[in-house]
Amino acid sequence: MWELQNPKPVKLIIGILAADETSLAAAVKAISKSFGTIDLTSDVWPFTQTNYYKDELGPNALRQFVSIENLIDPGNLAQIKHDTNSLEQQLADSLKLPLPRPVNLDPGFIEPSKLILASTKNFSHRIYIGNKMFAEVTLMYEKGNWRHFEFTFPDYRQSCYQDFLTKVRTRLMEQLKT
Questions:
Q1: Beta strand pairing call for 127-130 and 62-68
Q2: DSSP codes, 129-151
Q3: What is the pLDDT of residues 79-127, one digit of tens each?
Q4: d(CA 76, CA 8)
Q5: Rg (Cα) of the chain, in Å, rounded?
Q6: How far is CA 112 from CA 29, 124, 133, 141, in A?
């Protein structure tokens, strides 16, 4: 007979795309209030890899990542994506910018071997995780490096992102030891 095991806890990260510095700061504050203490914060980078979000975020979108101190159950990712969608709407209402979506929040998690991102959209490489949400393995960690897939978003292939993700992974490994 097979013995079923609970998954190990994982490190919640949230990728933020924001219209400007004010929107970005508001998003970080809202994330901390909703999900708990932020333990790691990436640099802020211009988001120039695609124009996909231009109509929602404007022409000068910024990208930043945060990770949350407390580890989570990976089975909570679908609900977390619903929660970040609600935060996006609250931020759009409070920021009062002439943009439909001045903040885009992309939750996911890091476990020792991979980065998983949640999505509201299905596609060939995504699996259904319940509660009207999907997820994908965006990057794999192997032999000390992040490895991308054919479908990995272009920005996640950048060394600056992967350097930050390595810091988050290192923090996760420390937390799992204690």
A1: unpaired
A2: EETTEEEEEEEEEETTEEEE-TT
A3: 999 999 999 999 999 999 999 999 999 999 999 999 999 999 999 999 9
A4: 13
A5: 16
A6: 27, 24, 23, 7
CATH pick for 11-177 out of 2.60.40, 3.30.70, 2.60.120, 1.25.40? 3.30.70
Q: In 5-44, which positions are buried (b, 16+ CB within 10 angstroms) versus exposed (e)?
A: eeeebbbbbbbbbbbbeebbebbbebbeebbeeeebebee
For the whole prediction, is pTM greater than 0.90? yes
Question: Going by C-beta distance under 8 Å and a sequence separation of 6 or more, which residues neighbour residue 178?
Answer: none
| Token reading at 36 | 């708990």
pLDDT on residue 50 = 82
Whole-number Å distance between alpha carbons of 15 and 52: 16
**C-alpha distances in Å from residue 159, one per residue of 21, 93, 147, 155, 165:** 23, 34, 11, 9, 10
What is the residue extent of each domain of the chain? Answer: 11-177
Burial of 137 (0-12, 13-18, 19+ CB in 10 A): middle
Quote the DSSP letter at residue 123: -
User: Which runs of E-coded beta strand occur in 19-160?
Assistant: 38-41, 45-46, 62-68, 103-111, 114-119, 127-130, 133-142, 145-148
The pLDDT of 147-159, averaged and rounded, is 95
